[in-house]
Amino acid sequence: MLYYIKKQHPIWSRVFRKTKDIAEKIRFYVSPIDSLRFSGDLSVFLNEQTVRFAVIGDRSIDCKAKEQISSIIERMKEASQLNHRNVILVSSFSAGVDITALQAALDNGIPVVAVLSEGLEGNYPKRYKELAERIIQTPGCGLLTQFEDSVTVTRNNYYDRDAVIALVSDVVNVVTAKKDSRAHQVAMFTQAVDIPLYAVPGEADDPLREGCNNLIEEGIAHAFPRWEALTSENNNI
What we know:
Strand order of the largest sheet: 1-2-6-5-4-3-7-8-9
Distance between the termini: 29 Å
CATH class: Alpha Beta
Number of helices: 10
């Protein structure tokens, strides 16, 4: 199903449930968010009891990152079953960590929302077009964007997309981040609206995790703990 959601619509506050007055809080960072478009099933995403857990990272991905994503997904699934609460994974439609996280969640029966950096009629590569169709057709899942249907990808769109990911989530976790990567702009958004940010630490000489280590060392992000500790600290489940 297709949804066109404007700020005046009652659903708007349920989409941005933890970020009231978002326009004022992020007005210096991104383009105004006046409307959203959603294709799929909104039921899980809008459920008050659903925990929205964002997983993001760089386009570069290694075996360690794939294992960490699998571990995160397993913990989400276990915590959901143990606490009888729905969880949903939020990520972008970018290659690397984000696409891998979306696919892993779907394979494990966890609903997903993919936030796009273009309109719903985007010209996806064939392998991503198949994933987009899978998401739209899976109960509880969907594609979300703030862009008009005909808008194509530009570099500036990535910035606006990452703002939406942070603003609709209950907690954000960074799996990989090189120095000065997108993780830093996501961190800026989470700080602006007081959403918990976690990062998976790595070896000091690992360039793929330098950004994660910096976020932790600077006190901007918490080191990603056991899932039980994460949910306990944030009362999300």
